[in-house]
Write a sequence for this structure.
């Protein structure tokens, strides 16, 4: 067997390693993640942003097609969306746990542990998918009624049952994508998600209008499109098998410590997404009380636009998580701080630009969801909502990057506590005061969300800098 041994001239670290019986060359992506944090964030973030943009665009187009049916249909989608996003967040949270653990193993040059962690991550995703699907089958209808969808429950169930029973099409691609991303294979992590979005865009009008399935058609399109992303991912991982980490399911042996290490980050990260979804559910309920389902439809439409503005921040945050995990595993404080400050800088620039675009072009953007006679009434409400909620993303990079970097260190609980402060306490508190005490109604809801996000994000950024200063002894300062 031919073995080449090559060392990094900068730090004398081994670049060619043996994983079991498998000879693996540390590729350029691994070297970039470990040794060039700014370059890594740039290279990792762009494909993630691109794929997230397509997924959000797909979500918006979903809303556009459904809006053509009527405002009740759009409101039905609005009631289901927080639950669906909670599931997406749960899947991404588990993915964050896997990404963090694998990246830390790679940074510490524990490559065999990294491969074993990838296998356990995949098995965990399958187990969780089965459990979640069973629970949703039992509790979906009463949950939607509790959320305020009682007056349109049949239409809401028609959409929600199909969408959430196909939740495997969210969990499995999210985990496989995280495994690819943790080892720098960003194209394989991102391109199938773009394929998902494109297929959904094609299927939506066919299923909704041509076949006449209405909101059911939108749900079927989403599930089928998500399933399609599994095909190339499965081929790369289990057939071609040319990644840095080789996944061999036949070699799987349960290691509870690995599951624990994934869940230490994954559960808090998932709970964070549940908190965010709970806030959205609560805002829908308050809007129903204050204004009615029309306000829910407007909020749903506006939030789909705001989601576009958030996509660059998510991409930058996930890239920082990967780079930060490798830096933390290598005990490299300098690279970790670069991941923090460079990520925040990129995020603030992008959020300022997008915020300005949303504010000044609110009117033309509102017509995306009010083009039909049945939904024209939404236009002024969407304009008002967008001109307030656009500021929601302005300081968001401070909190997003800080939270992701706490996850990269395996400190998922700290990230969770910061999300609890920002979303569960500050956003709800400000929204409740502005809407009910000051009687600003729906505008008060939007203004409260903005104030809570801004204050919470600033606190997160201040705290992570304090934490790093307090724990400098962990790092080998380079």
């Amino acid at each position: 067997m031919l073995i080449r041994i090559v060392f990094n001239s900068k730090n004398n670290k081994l670049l060619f390693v043996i994983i079991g019986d498998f000879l693996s060359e540390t590729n350029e992506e691994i070297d970039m993640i470990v040794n060039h944090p700014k370059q890594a964030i740039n290279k990792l973030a762009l494909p993630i942003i691109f794929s997230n943009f397509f997924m959000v665009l797909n979500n918006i187009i979903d809303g556009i097609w459904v809006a053509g049916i009527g405002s009740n249909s759009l409101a039905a989608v609005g009631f289901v969306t927080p639950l669906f996003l909670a599931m997406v967040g749960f899947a991404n949270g588990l993915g964050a746990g896997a990404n963090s653990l694998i990246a830390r193993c790679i940074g510490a040059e524990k490559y065999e542990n990294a491969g074993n962690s990838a296998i356990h991550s995949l098995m965990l995703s399958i187990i969780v998918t089965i459990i979640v699907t069973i629970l949703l089958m039992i509790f979906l209808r009463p949950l939607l009624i509790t959320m305020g969808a009682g007056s349109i429950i049949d239409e809401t169930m028609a959409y929600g049952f199909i969408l959430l029973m196909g939740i495997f099409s969210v969990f499995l691609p999210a985990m496989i994508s995280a495994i690819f991303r943790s080892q720098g294979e960003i194209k394989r992590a991102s391109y199938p998600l773009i394929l998902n979005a494109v297929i959904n865009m094609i299927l939506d009008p066919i299923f909704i209008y041509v076949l006449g399935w209405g909101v059911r058609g939108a749900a079927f399109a989403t599930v089928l499109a998500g399933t399609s992303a599994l095909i190339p991912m499965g081929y790369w991982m289990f057939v071609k098998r040319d990644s840095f980490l080789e996944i061999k399911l036949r070699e799987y042996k349960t290691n509870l410590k690995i599951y624990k290490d994934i869940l230490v980050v994954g559960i808090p990260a998932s709970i964070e997404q549940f908190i965010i979804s709970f806030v959205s559910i609560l805002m829908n309920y308050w809007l129903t009380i204050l204004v009615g389902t029309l306000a829910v439809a407007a909020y749903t439409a506006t939030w789909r636009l705001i989601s576009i503005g958030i996509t660059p921040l998510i991409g930058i945050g996930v890239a920082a998580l990967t780079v930060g995990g490798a830096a933390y595993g290598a005990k490299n404080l300098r690279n970790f701080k670069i991941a923090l400050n460079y990520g925040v800088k990129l995020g603030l620039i992008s959020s300022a630009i997008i915020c300005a675009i949303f504010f000044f072009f609110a009117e033309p953007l509102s017509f995306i969801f009010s083009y039909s006679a049945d939904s024209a009434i939404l236009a002024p409400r969407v304009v008002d909502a967008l001109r307030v909620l656009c500021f929601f993303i302005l300081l968001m990079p401070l909190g997003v990057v800080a939270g992701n970097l706490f996850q990269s260190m395996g400190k998922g609980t700290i990230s969770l506590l910061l999300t609890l402060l920002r979303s569960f306490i500050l956003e709800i508190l400000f929204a409740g005061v502005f809407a009910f005490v000051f009687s600003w109604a729906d505008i008060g809801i939007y203004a409260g969300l903005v104030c809570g996000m801004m204050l919470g994000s600033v606190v997160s950024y201040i705290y992570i800098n304090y934490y790093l200063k307090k724990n400098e002894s962990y790092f080998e300062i380079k």
Remarks:
- Residues 1-26 have pLDDT under 50 and may be disordered.
- The longest strand covers residues 16-19.
